[in-house]
Automatic annotation (TrEMBL):
InterPro entries: AAA+_ATPase (IPR003593), ABC_transporter-like_ATP-bd (IPR003439), ABC_transporter-like_CS (IPR017871), ABC_transpr_LolD-like (IPR015854), Cell_div_FtsE (IPR005286), P-loop_NTPase (IPR027417)
Membrane topology note: Peripheral membrane protein
Gene Ontology biological process terms in this record: cell division
A Pfam match: ABC_tran
Source species: Nocardioides ginsengisegetis
UniProt entry tagged with the keyword Cell division: yes
GO molecular function: ATP binding; ATP hydrolysis activity; transmembrane transporter activity
Coiled-coil ranges from the UniProt annotation: none
Compartment list: Cell membrane
Residue ranges annotated for the ABC transporter domain, each copy included: 2-228
Protein name, entry field: Cell division ATP-binding protein FtsE
Record SMART domains: AAA
Subunit comment: Homodimer. Forms a membrane-associated complex with FtsX.
C-alpha cells in the first residue's frame, strides 16, 4: 500500500537530510506507528506519502503508483484516498459537527442524499450520535478529535494518516481515540500514525518503525515505544 525505496529528502539550506535512504513497505490493512525524537523525520515521511513534498532521491509508491510521477491533476485524487488527522483537530469553527463532516463530501461532489445518510452513520461510528448540531467549541478535545476522524474517514479512504492524534488529549481520552483508530483499521484501512505517546504504543502492540536522524533504526512487529538497541 505504501512503499519507500531508498527515499531521501533534503530541504534546501539544511545540512543533513530529513530522510536518508529510507526503505519501508507497508501492506494494505496494516497499522503502523512511526516513532522517533522530534526532528527525526516523521512528518517528512507523512508529507511524502501525501505528495506535499517530493523525494530528493528514491521512490515513493502509494497503492502501486510511483507518486512522484503522478500528473499534477491526479494529486487531488490521491489525497482524497488518504484521510488525515492532526494533533490540533483542524475543524471549521463556524460549522456544526455534521457540517464539518459533510464538507469533506461536498468538496468531492457528493449529492445531498448520500451526504444525508452517510454523515449520521459516520458520526455514530465514531461515538458522536446526537451531537451533530453542536459547534466544535461545545465539544471536549476528545470529541473534537472524533469529529476530525469522522471527517477523515467519511469517504472511506484506503489510508488514514494520523500525526500525533493524541498529543492534546489526556491518557483516558487517548485510549478511546486509539480504540476508534483500531476499529477503523479493522475495516481494512491502512493506518499510519506518528506519535510520541509511549503509553499508547506499548499498549497497542502494533508494528513500530523508529526514525533517528532520518534513518530507519528499527522496524518491529508488535513493537514497543522504547527499545534497547
Ligand atoms: N519545510 C521544511 N523546510 C526545511 N527544513 C525542514 C522542513 N520541514 C522539516 N524540516 C527539517 O527536517 C528535519 C525533520 O523534520 P520533521 O518535521 O520531519 O521531523 P518530526 O520527526 O516530524 O519532528 P516532530 O516530532 O517535532 O514533529 C528537521 O531537521 C526539520 O528541521
Amino acid at each position: 500500500m505504501i512503499r519507500f525505496e531508498k527515499v531521501s529528502k533534503a530541504y534546501p539550506g539544511q545540512g543533513s537530510p530529513a530522510l536518508d535512504q529510507v526503505t519501508v513497505d507497508v501492506e494494505k490493512g496494516e497499522f503502523v506507528f512511526l516513532v522517533g525524537a522530534s526532528g527525526s523525520g516523521k512528518s517528512t515521511f507523512l508529507r511524502l506519502v501525501l505528495r506535499e513534498h517530493r523525494p530528493s532521491s528514491g521512490r515513493v509508491y502509494v497503492a502501486g503508483k510511483e507518486i512522484n510521477r503522478l500528473a499534477a491533476w491526479k494529486v487531488p485524487r490521491l489525497r482524497r484516498s488518504i484521510g488525515t488527522v492532526f494533533q490540533d483537530f483542524r475543524l471549521l469553527p463556524n460549522k456544526t459537527v455534521s457540517e464539518n463532516v459533510a464538507f469533506a463530501l461536498q468538496v468531492i461532489g457528493k449529492g445531498h442524499k448520500e451526504i444525508a445518510s452517510v454523515v449520521p452513520e459516520t458520526l455514530e461510528l465514531v461515538g458522536l450520535e446526537g451531537k451533530g448540531d453542536r459547534m466544535p467549541d461545545e465539544l471536549s478535545g476528545g470529541e473534537q478529535q472524533r469529529v476530525a476522524i469522522a471527517r477523515a474517514f467519511v469517504n472511506r479512504p484506503m489510508i488514514l494518516i494520523a500525526d500525533e492524534p493524541t498529543g492534546n488529549l489526556d491518557p483516558t481520552t487517548s485510549v478511546g481515540i486509539m480504540k476508534l483508530l483500531d476499529r477503523i483499521n479493522r475495516t481494512g484501512t491502512t493506518v499510519l500514525m506518528a506519535t510520541h505517546d509511549a503509553g499508547i504504543v506499548d499498549q497497542m502492540r502494533k508494528r513500530v518503525i523508529e526514525l533517528e536522524d532520518g534513518r530507519v533504526v528499527r522496524d518491529q512487529a508488535q513493537g514497543v515505544y522504547g527499545f534497547q538497541h
